[in-house]
Amino acid sequence: MVRIDRKATSATQAHVLNHLRDSGVAATLHYLPVHTQPYYRGLGFREGDFPEAELYAGEALTLPLYYGLSEADQDKVVAELGRAFGA
User: Fold this and answer.
1) Ranges in the chain, pLDDT < 70
2) What is the per-residue pLDDT for 36?
3) Could you give the CA distance from residue 5 to residue 9 in angstroms, rounded to a whole number?
4) CATH, domain 2-84, list 3.40.50.2300, 3.90.1150.10, 3.40.50.620, 1.20.1260.10
5) What is each CA distance from 24 to 17, 45, 79, 84, in whole angstroms?
6) Residue 36 to residues 16, 29, 56: CA-CA distances in angstroms?
7) Contact at 8 Å (CB) between 36 and 47?
8) pTM, entire model
9) CA dist., res. 84 & res. 52, Å (int)
10) Predicted local distance difference test score (pLDDT) of residue 39
């Protein structure tokens, strides 16, 4: 998991996620706040009720991590993550 610090970079979560996916890296959104799910909306929860959870959801991405991930694949993830930030 990585967290994109919006104060430290102009790269957005969407930009980084799209770059990684376009490069063949199977990154995903890491977290969706529970209170934004339909069931909880039905209970009256709304966006803005838990601002820190919403901030985290807008900054976090899950990177590939599994037992068989080769060192070359790890290098590719790191390199593409750097490219997504303009490095």
Assistant:
1) 87
2) 94
3) 6
4) 3.90.1150.10
5) 11, 36, 12, 13
6) 23, 15, 13
7) yes
8) 0.84
9) 25
10) 96
What is the model's pLDDT at position 54?
95
Non-local (6+) Cβ contacts of 59 within 8 A are 3, 4, 5, 6, 13
Q: How many other CB atoms are found less than 10 A from the CB of residue 36?
A: 16
For the chain, give every domain's residue range.
2-84
- Determine how β-strand 28-29 pairs with β-strand 2-3: unpaired
Q: Which helix (H) or strand (E) segment is 2 a member of?
A: strand 2-3
Return the percentage of the chain with pLDDT > 90, whole number. Answer: 85
